[in-house]
Amino acid sequence: MNRWKWTGVVVLTLFVLYCVTGFFIAPSQLKKQLISQAKDQAGVDLSVEKVKVNPLVLSVTLEKLASQDREGRDLIAADRIYVNAQLWPLVRRNITLKSLILEKPDVNVILTAAGDPHWLELVPATEDPEPAVAEESEPWVFTLAQTDIIDGKIRYADEPHPETYNTELGGLNFSLGGLTTQVGEPGPFSIAFAHEGQGEVRLEGAFALTPLTFDGALTVSELQLKPSWRYARYLHGIEWESGTLNGSLDINVDGADGLELATSNGSWSLTDTDMTLEDGQSLFKLASLTVEGPDFSLAGRSAGISRIALSDGTINLTRGPDGELELPAALVGGESSESEEAEAPAADPATAGGGEPFQFAIASVTVNNLPINWTDQSVQPETAQTLTINELSLADFDLSPGTQFPVRLDAALGDGQILWDGQHVLTPLAVDGGLTLSQLPLPWLTGYVRESAALNVESGALGAQLNVSLSDGLKAGGSVEVSNLATSGEEGPLAGFASFSLAGIDVNVPADEPALVHFDRVSLSEPSATFAIAADGSSNISRLTGSPDETEAEEAEAQPESAAEAEEAPGPVIELGELTIDGGTLRFADASVQPAFSASINQFGGTLRGLNSNVDKPASLDFAGKLEGYADIGITGELNPLEDRNKVTLSTKNIDLTSANAYAGKYVGRLIERGRLDLELGYELDGDSLKGSNEVVLGQLTLGGSVDSEDAVSLPLDLALALLKDPSGNIDLGVPVAGNLNDPKFRIGSVVFKAFVNLIVKAAASPFFILGKLIPGGGEDLQYVNFQPGIGELDEAATDRLTKLSEALLQRPTLRLDIAGVASRGLDAPALKTQRLEAELGLSGLDDEARNSALIEAFQARIGELPTLPPEEEGAEPLPDLAAVEEQLLASLEISDDALRELATARASAIKSALAASDESLIQRAYVLDPRLVELSGGETVVIELVLAPN
Questions:
Q1: How far apart are CA 497 and CA 482, in angstroms?
Q2: 372 secondary structure, DSSP code
Q3: Which among 158, 414, 692, 776 has the fewest CB atoms less than 10 Å away?
Q4: Considering only CA atoms, which of 934, 913, 938 is closest in space to residue 923?
Q5: If residue 502 lies in a helix (H) or strand (E), which one and from where to where?
Q6: Please, are residues 262 and 246 in contact by the beta-carbon 8 Å criterion?
């Protein structure tokens, strides 16, 4: 054979051996090596039903492959794996796979307790080798001409997950052509899968690895979100009960000149969404959410959404008994510490990542028919209200500084309406728009009001028409009205009104200057209030906010630390053109007295004009009303907030005093039979100092029957009233008031009441002193009349005093005078004996000699032997003891009590006659009482004490 024949034979023989080895020997050996190496290197139990090798096309086929790890957990399985390689490109340092096909692959991924996929357990631990010095050479090229995954499945299990989460991606189909590590044209790419057999996610387009390039589209069809959400629900505490996602988005990735990522033509819709909290409470329902976009460009540093449309949903928000919003922690910021928040610098979304500011814009946002149900269990009573967003629209939203975008809101709160239409700027923050409120209900605020006061809002509605501007300060103008407000306390109705309106509002709050608050007109129509005192003495007002001591303590804590601090922060300037009140009613009830007292002021109204806290000009006030429908009440005065000087006068006429019988019985112990009250109360406030006068006129006050009361004063009230009544039957009193309002013990009512009581006490205790004050030059005590012993006539001093007393009595026609004549056995009896002896002996007018002779003669005739004096000289005749003679003669006389009573009666008659000499009418008001005999022996005169009594 020649050489060529031998060469052919050898080549043919080698080819046959190659084919025999490839087709028949290699499959078994390859299968054996695969199983052995998997076991030895990774501890994987690998099973392969059949291995096919085609040496002619360099392909390997594995059929019915399955694998498990050391613990018997599935790793990967497939019906068929086909790999077709090309040999000749290796010459050019190119590893080329013509085709890679996986039919029905089943991949199992388990996240272990360590937090790593269980696949990592198959990789043996090795020491890090010394880094090899790479030799500079031409890099190898890897090319995968065509890759296909057909009907694959990926199963995922998370063992550390609280619920051992399991899920599955099925129907996985993947196709990639022309994948190479060298620069080349993009090849076709597509991937599609379903999540737990529902919906489809598809990404397809053209893909190149070098440079990284992708141009395609993402499409989501009928994807159910509940299965996907199961993995995250324990993190958020939210159950996604239902929701279907559909949408598409064009994606472009270009890595030729730096990485450019861009999206466009997006259109997404989320329908029939229902989210609940872990306890099953509904949190959020939504019929439809549509998003067109996002249009994103990484190179252009911009992102935008063409349209967001949300309609027909419901949001339920609940504030629990602990005051915390019942939302999952992930939605309210988790539990980050204050220090972490302080250390984390605020990131500006516009410049995040450095470089040029990132531009973000939303062309249009619309929300329709979205009720927001609010329940607050932290207040009592529990509060529930629904805010329904009928329509919310936002256009041309942009993060760029100075960019303006409009916002319009049409919402309903109960039966009321909220409208907002304005322009907004985010950077710097600015707002300019109009707010309209119509018939917003107020009763649902009761729970919040009761946090600080035991007050119920029974009815009421709020309305407003305001223009609001926010930019370097706040400006607002327009009008506000509250209608049909009614409030109540624990005992019943408290306060309210038919309408309250603020018109011509102009509020200006600059950033660095005092605020200006101006109202053209404030109107209050048909206001009503009830002030009630309970049986224990507490009032319905004090029970609203707790004890006065607690309130004063809280107010003290709220005061500035020093006067300097208060001066450093000037208050707002307040201007009020006119305040009007019309048809007001004030009701007063007092159950602390029996019978219970009640009164009312109605038809109350008037005006306050020109109030300005920054102008040295007082505002005028003029109000009037009716007490119980007939007694006039007026309030007038001036208010000057700038100088802190205010003057107020309260006047009332013709108040029927019988309406106050409950208080008269409790504090006086007597009922009022008739009488009226007129008041003229004037107060002047200069800073914290209060000065005032209270002119009180009690007309025809007459007391009636007695009432048993522990609180009643024990005084001769009839006398005191008679002393205070003028000839017309009126009591005209002036009670000055002074004090410091900063003194917590200072109370105007207390000062006035004490002044009245002191006056009554003084009148009852010193009636003649009070009476003496009524006449010019009076003031001396007119209660006593002095008589010389044995004398029944008045001397000049006594007559003058009685003349003054008569003048005073004429000014107090309701007083009478009781005169009890007095005679003294010690002073008057000796004087009467002297008078009788002189009368019987005719001693009056005699000289001393004749007087002595008459005394001696009478002594000898009546008594006998004369008493004598010791003789001056021995042997001389003894002389009669004239002093002893007169003394014994007087002692022999007897003055009877009747004689003394006659003297006492004469004295009383003399007093009465002296009073009648001034005015005969006093005869009817002076009463002579039975005479009194006393045992007086000291002193020079006998004193008669006069007694005043009501007539």
A1: 9
A2: E
A3: 776
A4: 913
A5: strand 492-510
A6: no
Cβ–Cβ under 8 Å, residues 214 and 207: yes
Poorest-pLDDT segment among 83-97, 194-208, 371-385, 660-674: 83-97
Give dist(CA 407, CA 385) in Å, integer.
Answer: 24
Find where tokens 């005084």 sit.
715
C-alpha–C-alpha distance, residues 290 and 267, integer Å: 7
Structure tokens belonging to residue 735 = 């009670």
Residues 367, 361: Cα–Cα separation, whole Å: 17
Cα–Cα distances in angstroms (integers) from residue 724 to residues 197, 383, 729, 774, 813, in the given order: 104, 60, 9, 10, 11
Q: What are the residues whose beta carbons fall under 8 Å from the beta carbon of 365, sequence distance 6 or more?
A: 307, 308, 309, 392, 393, 394, 395, 397
Backbone φ and ψ of 505, nearest 5°: -75, 135
CA distance 70 to 120: 12
Instruction: Give the helix ranges, DSSP H, for 519-677.
Output: 542-545, 548-558, 563-568, 661-663
Q: Identify the residue whose tokens are 């002996």.
A: 841
Between the alpha carbon of residue 885 and those of residues 839, 865, 895, the distances in Å are 17, 10, 19
Q: Which two tokens stand for residue 681?
A: 């109360």
Nearest of 455, 456, 461, 457 to residue 484 by alpha carbon: 461
Which residue is it, tokens 């190496």? 37
Instruction: Render 295-335 in DSSP notation, one character per residue.
Output: EEETTTTEEEESEEEEEEEEEEEEE-TTS-B-S-GGGTTTT
Highest mean pLDDT among 216-220, 655-659, 804-808: 216-220
Which stretch of DSSP H or E encloses residue 904?
Answer: helix 897-918
Residue 260's alpha-carbon distances to 212, 253, 297, 300, in angstroms, are 10, 6, 7, 9
404-413 and 416-425 strand pairing? antiparallel
Region of residue 670 (phi > 0: left; psi between -120 and 50: alpha; otherwise: beta): beta
Compute how many other C-beta atoms are within 10 angstroms of the C-beta atom of residue 595: 9
pLDDT of 660 over the 90 cut: no
Q: Which three-class secondary structure state does DSSP give residue 207? A: strand
Rg over alpha carbons for the chain, rounded to the nearest Å, is: 58
> What are the residues whose beta carbons fall under 8 Å from the beta carbon of 884, sequence distance 6 or more?
867
Q: Are 739 and 749 a contacting pair, CB within 8 Å?
A: no
Q: Which of 658, 667, 533 is nearest to 590 (CA)?
A: 533
Tell me the Ramachandran region of residue 523: left when phi exceeds 0, alpha when psi lies from -120 to 50, beta otherwise.
beta
pLDDT tens by residue, 619-654: 899 999 888 777 788 889 888 876 677 888 878 888
Is the confidence at residue 137, as pLDDT, over 70?
no
Sign of the dihedral through C-alpha 159, 162, 164, 166 = negative
- What is the sign of the dihedral through the CA atoms of 747, 751, 756 and 758? positive
Q: At which residue do the structure tokens 């014994």 appear? A: 888
Instruction: Report whether 27 contacts 52 (CB < 8 A).
Output: yes
Kindly tell me if the per-residue pLDDT of 460 is higher than 70.
Answer: yes
CB burial class (10 A; 0-12, 13-18, 19+) of residue 760? buried
State the CB neighbour count (10 A cutoff) for residue 48: 20
pLDDT band at 690 (very low <50, low <70, confident <90, very high): low
pLDDT band at 726 (very low <50, low <70, confident <90, very high): confident
* Percentage with pLDDT > 90 across the chain: 31
pTM recorded for the entire structure: 0.73
State residue 651 phi and psi, 5-degree precision.
-130, 145
pLDDT in tens, 319-338: 888 888 876 554 554 444 44
Q: Measuring CA to CA, which residue among 731, 654, 725, 638 is closest to residue 686?
A: 638
How far is Cα 589 from Cα 597, in angstroms, rounded to an integer? 6
User: Is-contact 852 833, C-beta < 8 A?
Assistant: no
